Records
---
Amino acid sequence: MPRRDTSDGASARRDTLERTARTPRRRNRRSEGPVTIDPAPVRPWRLWLVWGVGVAAYMLSVTNRTSLSAVGVDAAVRFDADASTLSMFAVIQLFVYGAMQIPVGVLLDRFGARPIITIGMFLMAAGQLVMAFAPDVGTAIVARILLGAGDAAIFPSVLRVVAVWFPTRQAPFMVQLTGIVGQSGQLLAILPIAALLHATSWTVAFGTLAGLGVLFTVLTFAVIRNRPPGRDADVSVDTKTGAIRAVTSSADLRQGFTESWAHPATRLAFWSHFTTPFSGTAFVLLWGFPFLTVGEGLTPAMASLVFSVYVVAGMVIGPVIGALSSRHPMRRSRMLVLPIIAVQVVAWLAVILWPGPAPLWLLFALALALSTGGPASMIGFDHARTHNPSHRLSTATGIVNVGGFLAALLAILFIGIAMDALGAGTPDTYSLEAFRLAFLTQLPLWALGAGFIVFERKRTRVHLGLDEPRRRRKRDAHDERDAPRHD
């Protein structure tokens, strides 16, 4: 019997299968459940170009965020600002950043990453341009508001780019890599920006940052796309599984917020993120450089080296803490979060109680201790991811992210108020003793956060059925005590 030529049929079937694999699976519009889809194939050069522009934009946003860290004394002189007023620059910036987290998430779900990251870069460029020519405190505060609003849009947008463009198996690694590369922007704020300001002028330094912001406004709009070619569905990402899902319904934001906060694990995540990173943020964002140069008497170059230890150590420690968090999910608080808080407290007390200026090795140890705060704060997002369903995960993540910035702005404000109260509100009156007493205002924040971590950890374990409620334990013990004994 002659064989039939099936090559055309086989080819047609292969073409059909390939088209089916490339086409996202959809459900009926009435369906409420999410639909898992796979990323469309993307040429490697385009994939890395989109990510490269996004992560470079994030690096610039970190540079802008910390641009006052190495020039805090110059800012105090330029605006004739006391310590409380100088604190307000960072406090207002962080407040706007935190307040914008949930709205930015909603806008990303609605419009995608490209317009949001572009608008964010434009706002940061505008903020730095205003800062470059600001003649007084009021104008400088407007600049920091613009900067905080723009900064709030960048990191969530880049995370969305990673989740939508990269295959599921690569997304977790790319998120870690994005964070590590982006945080290196702190080094640009500490070294080149400070050197440029001292070599030229305030206007030139901040005008340069504004120019870079304009450049990346154009680059992000020209290069970044909401989704790879061939995909026409709006998507969100389940960070618990890494699956990319087509959005077929929207949840009520208020209900999502209430349900997220009602879960004790979300509150545990909030307080974990509240307590671990704030001291390092306050140190790097505003008060660390004046403390090291004026208080401890270091040269600007040596103070920059201490800052560099903080940044590089955080980049090294981050993957280690992430691996331990993944390996021991039920012991994150006791094994990682609470010990890291204790390490930060001990390091600060050692510096504060040291007779006279602290030796350089102790300041390096302080930077190393503070560098653990940022990676440890990511454990809060692990809690949110583990214990919240995908339909309210973004809301829970926004709640958690607010915690760290709330604590940081409180720490910055408390330190500034304490400096003024101690009569050391201007650079001419800064002193080591005043700085040491002012940094003690961090202790109540650590105590508050650690207390709530212990409390919410117990409630989370009860909620998950890992522990029994205290009342039940007491009742069981009472019943056992009153039960008749049979000898």
---
Amino acid sequence: MQLFVRAQELHALEVTGLETVAQSKAHVASLEGLTLEDKVVLLAGSPLQDEATLGRCGVDALTTLEVVGRMLGGEWGHRGPKLGPRSNS
């Protein structure tokens, strides 16, 4: 099946679905001369685990994945500061 991977450029890859996320990430990194360090693959904005296969992650034909730099700091699922009771002073 064909899928698309967006990194610095958009690439069309021919895959079977049995490839791991790490293998696909390494392939794109070699095409663009990127290092794998601190890179993450996203599907619809959600990070994929490197050891998972593309098929297990729900990647279908013509899906677009993104390879982006991992953001340092922060917390997944953080919705902002918790505010205490409001003062009417």
